[in-house]
């Protein structure tokens, strides 16, 4: 027996008496105990234990030191005393046989997307089954959780339905990973063995290939089959004969069709000779590549399975469905299934005494709630999903459902029975309902964490991180993470790459700028790290890695800070953090920065206050006070603002609330990132954070030459204004384009303001009070003595180049060479905008009508329209239609409306609007017509 097998038997024997309800800090076996018992090095013991965890044979308990227990500890065990089960009052349900479920002529109809994203896979599977005389061997390829096992079972049922195999046959299933560490035992399971073939082979045994005679053998994770095993399998495919382990002659015969499955690339994980024996390769799609309807159908089917289990109607809000769909990362359908079951379990706990289970967004845990945020950033997917959803999704337990073999993403027990029985026991012991909910909610969360860990799902953090810091620093951070994971016997938070990467980037930037803070060492931090000698030693290795990668000298003070960061990333520090409030002028300026940082660092001690330009100072002050009180945890609050005039709020806030507040102005996304990162560190004081931010130079590796502001001049943040009729439709799209470009250049300190032509002068004056306008764009040049970028130019392919010229102060007007923007390009821009920006309108159906409307407006007003006119009018009209549907139209003063109605333009465009009204079965208000009137007047003024 191999060492790893002996380690497993030792863990199993030593922990079999444990009960999941009685686990404490002393339960389980440590790495040192294993090392001492087998007289091996601790590193070898750790390697074996982690391999067993990955294989799902043992589980790891949080704590220090880490302890390990056999997986059987977490299996549901009978109650030690009788309690009335919540199921005993329910009428027993008649059991259905498997055959009753399969009433469709085409078994594949029950596969979601069989004639959509899975159409090609379905046709290949049918061909493999029906190919004469007895079908073809096939290989299913797909990412983790994509439904390979489910699809294989469907193929098998299709074969039975079409009389390829007898009805009394069953498919034999074998996961090659179960015995990957023991090839001898693996081959014995597949082919059988004779007596004496190996130690412990006391009698002859038939293998799975014999058992699968005249049926199907499903080999999951085939890439874990060793090369000699693959050779034996492909020999069997060719000849139909095999030898048992311990035999020299291949005298045994079996007629078996083999279905293999793998998550890996066959060309790199399987022998070429093996792959050539499999004529049909079936590729299953990622969850993200499925259609919107398929994603919703998957949620419905999985929820129906839960409804049948608990025999209750389940009602989900629209946001819950979106959150579930958005929560799926690399786990695909398997992850969705686990999330559905765990969400339902939590809600079942909360509504156990009710006939209906209503699942709302508030009941979801944070990791699934984040799915809603993730989905909101994917406008394409959101726009496809929204028209297909209703405010409520009602699932009945009586709905027909094709189902059979449970797959690997099914919990190996009925979670609802555990919840019901455990709740009954706790209630009998006199616990309050709140206490019962707390205990059982903890259990449910453990199942969720266990699922993610055991199935190896990760998150695509590095793609987001490259948008903020240099890829070279990410590589250094990964080296550090890999070393820390090996050297320290505990797990890190999921934001390790972000937090450590940003810290290293900030340190290198301070080093380059020769910051005074670099050489300072805090006595409190020195005293604290003295309690963490192990982490201190690891941080010293971090120092060596950084010095080797960047050829710099890292001072001892930085080693102390790295130690603090390591400890912070291990321990979730819930109390005493510094709160951070971001307050900035604009409709979404502050909230946008906070949303980005919250998503990146997974922190919850940030708040935002958006201050539209028309907001009065008193109202702004009250909102800031409200958020300061909300985020305060006792260590003070850092207020980050966009201009110096708000600095005076600090003393007033302290007088009103008694909370210590420090203010840093000229806020950018980088500053918010740094504040959030450092406010989560252990023992960071408000004063330390303030000093750090005051000397913060950003994350980008810039030149040491600083821009000097002439004495006597006040610095203003830079801004760009985007002008359209209402300040909402086209101007918002222009802002998105400019913001995207600025972010790609890490220019997060330039504000972009969409403004209306109606109040152009007043809006610009307000902006100029606090900002230096460096450029303008849109439907009208405001004559500000700064570069004006026409809409044609901005939306053309040369748009990014022109923006770069503006930022580099090299912009020159090109009167003789206008930018090329064709009508086709303009139409494409409008289509993309409508598709990405609106909920209720379909660009495929609506855009032709809006484009025709724009053409008729140009005809009646004798406008020689340019593409930019069509872009502006189409985008604005689409926004007007959406606002009319939402009953949230723009407003205009009565005087302005009366003035418009007296014009000939209003009289001429009236019939064109009436035609559009009839076409869309909609009525435009005069308020919305006013802004379209302004677009027309502005275009005519250019002629």
Report on this model:
The protein is of the alpha/beta class. It is 50% helix and 11% strand. A 5-stranded parallel β-sheet has the order 5-8-11-4-12. It has a 4-stranded parallel β-sheet with strand order 17-16-18-19, with helices on both faces. Strand 16, helix 25 and strand 17 form a beta-alpha-beta unit. The N and C termini lie far apart (90 Å). 36% of the residues are buried. About 9% of the residues have low confidence.
Helix content: 40-55%
Total beta strands = 23
Portion in strands: 5-15%
Stretches with pLDDT under 50, minimum 5 residues:
76-103, 403-413, 446-464, 571-575, 701-714, 814-818
Number of helices: 39
Computed over alpha carbons, the radius of gyration is 33 Å
Specify the structural class.
alpha/beta
Give, in spatial order, the strands making up the sheet with the most strands.
5-8-11-4-12
């Amino acid at each position: 027996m191999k060492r790893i097998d002996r380690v497993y038997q030792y863990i199993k024997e030593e922990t079999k008496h444990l009960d999941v309800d009685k686990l404490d800090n002393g339960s389980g076996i440590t790495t040192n105990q294993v090392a001492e018992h087998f007289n091996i090095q601790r590193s070898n013991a750790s390697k074996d234990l982690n391999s067993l965890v990955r294989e799902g044979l043992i589980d790891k308990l949080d704590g220090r030191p880490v302890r390990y227990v056999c997986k059987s500890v977490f299996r549901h065990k009978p109650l030690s005393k009788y309690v009335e089960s919540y199921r005993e009052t329910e009428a027993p349900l008649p059991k259905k046989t498997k055959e009753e479920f399969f009433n469709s002529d085409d078994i594949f109809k029950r596969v979601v997307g069989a004639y959509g994203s899975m159409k090609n896979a379905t046709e290949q599977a049918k061909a493999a089954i029906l190919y004469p005389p007895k079908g073809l061997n096939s290989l299913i390829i797909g990412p983790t959780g994509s439904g390979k096992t489910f699809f294989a079972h469907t193929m098998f049922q299709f074969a039975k339905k079409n009389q390829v195999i007898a009805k009394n046959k069953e498919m034999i299933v074998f996961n090659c990973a179960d015995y990957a560490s023991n090839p001898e035992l693996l081959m014995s399971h597949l082919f059988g063995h004779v007596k004496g073939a190996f130690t412990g082979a006391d009698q002859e045994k038939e293998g799975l290939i014999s058992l699968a005679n005249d049926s199907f053998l499903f080999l999951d994770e085939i890439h874990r089959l060793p090369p000699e095993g693959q050779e034996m399998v492909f020999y069997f495919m060719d000849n139909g004969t095999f030898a048992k382990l311990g035999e020299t002659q291949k005298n045994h015969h079996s007629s078996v069709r083999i279905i293999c499955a793998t998550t890996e690339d066959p060309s790199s994980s399987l022998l070429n000779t093996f792959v050539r024996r499999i004529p049909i390769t079936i590729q299953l799609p990622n969850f993200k590549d499925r259609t919107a309807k398929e994603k919703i159908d998957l949620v419905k089917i999985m929820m129906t399975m839960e409804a049948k289990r608990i025999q209750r109607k389940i009602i989900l809000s629209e946001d819950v469905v979106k959150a579930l769909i958005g929560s799926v990362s690399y786990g695909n359908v398997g992850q969705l299934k686990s999330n559905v079951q765990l969400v339902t379990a939590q809600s079942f706990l909360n509504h156990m005494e009710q006939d209906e289970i209503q699942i709302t967004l508030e009941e979801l845990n944070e990791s699934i709630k984040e799915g809603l945020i993730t989905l909101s950033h994917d406008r394409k997917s959101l726009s496809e999903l929204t028209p297909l959803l209703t405010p409520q999704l009602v699932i009945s337990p009586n709905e027909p459902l094709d189902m059979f073999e449970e797959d690997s993403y099914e919990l190996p027990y009925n979670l609802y029975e555990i919840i019901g029985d455990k709740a009954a026991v706790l209630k009998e012991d006199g616990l309050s309902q709140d206490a019962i909910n707390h205990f059982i909610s903890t259990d449910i969360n453990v199942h969720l964490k266990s699922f993610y860990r055991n199935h190896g799902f990760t998150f695509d953090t590095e793609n987001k991180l490259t948008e903020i810091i240099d890829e070279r620093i990410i590589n250094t951070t990964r080296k550090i993470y890999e070393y820390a994971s090996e050297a320290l016997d505990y797990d890190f938070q999921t934001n390790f790459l972000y937090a450590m990467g940003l810290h290293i980037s900030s340190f290198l930037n301070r080093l380059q700028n020769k910051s005074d803070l670099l050489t300072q060492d805090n006595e409190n931090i020195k005293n604290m790290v003295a309690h963490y000698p192990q982490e201190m030693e690891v941080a010293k290795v971090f120092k060596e890695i950084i010095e080797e990668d960047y050829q710099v000298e890292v001072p001892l003070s930085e080693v102390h800070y790295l130690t603090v960061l390591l400890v912070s990333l291990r321990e979730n520090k819930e109390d005493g953090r510094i709160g951070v409030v971001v307050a900035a002028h604009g409709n979404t300026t502050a909230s946008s920065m906070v949303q980005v940082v919250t998503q990146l660092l997974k922190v919850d001690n940030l708040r935002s206050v958006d201050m539209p330009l028309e907001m009065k100072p008193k109202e702004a002050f009250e909102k800031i006070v409200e958020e300061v009180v909300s985020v305060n945890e006792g260590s003070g609050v850092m207020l980050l603002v966009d201009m110096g005039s708000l600095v005076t709020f600090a003393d007033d806030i302290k007088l009103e609330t008694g909370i210590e507040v420090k203010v840093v102005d000229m806020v950018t996304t980088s500053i918010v990132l740094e504040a959030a990162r450092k406010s989560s560190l252990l023992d960071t004081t408000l004063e330390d954070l303030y000093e750090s931010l005051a000397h913060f130079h950003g994350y980008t590796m810039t030149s040491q030459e600083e821009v000097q502001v002439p004495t006597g001049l006040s610095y203003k943040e830079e801004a760009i204004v985007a002008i359209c009729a209402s300040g909402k439709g086209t101007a918002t799209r222009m802002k998105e384009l400019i913001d995207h470009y600025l972010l790609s250049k890490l220019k997060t300190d330039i504000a972009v303001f969409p403004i209306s032509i109606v109040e152009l002068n007043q809006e610009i004056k307000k902006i100029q009070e606090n900002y230096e306008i460096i450029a303008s764009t849109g439907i009208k040049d405001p004559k500000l003595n700064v570069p004006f970028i026409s809409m044609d130019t901005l939306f053309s392919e040369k748009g990014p180049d022109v923006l770069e010229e503006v930022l580099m102060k090299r912009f020159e007007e090109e009167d003789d060479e206008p930018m090329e923007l064709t009508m086709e390009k303009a139409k494409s821009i409008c289509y993309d905008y409508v598709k990405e920006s609106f909920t209720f309108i379909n660009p495929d159906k609506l855009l032709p009508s809006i484009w025709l409307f724009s053409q008729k407006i140009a005809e009646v007003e004798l406008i020689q329209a340019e593409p930019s006119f069509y872009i502006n009018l189409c985008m604005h009209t689409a926004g007007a239609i959406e606002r009319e549907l939402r009953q949230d139209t723009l407003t205009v003063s009565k005087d302005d409306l009366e003035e418009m109605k007296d014009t000939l333009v209003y009289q001429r465009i009236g019939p064109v609007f009436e035609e559009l009204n009839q076409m869309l079965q909609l009525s435009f208000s005069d308020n919305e017509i006013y802004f379209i009137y302004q677009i027309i007047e502005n275009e005519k003024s250019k002629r």
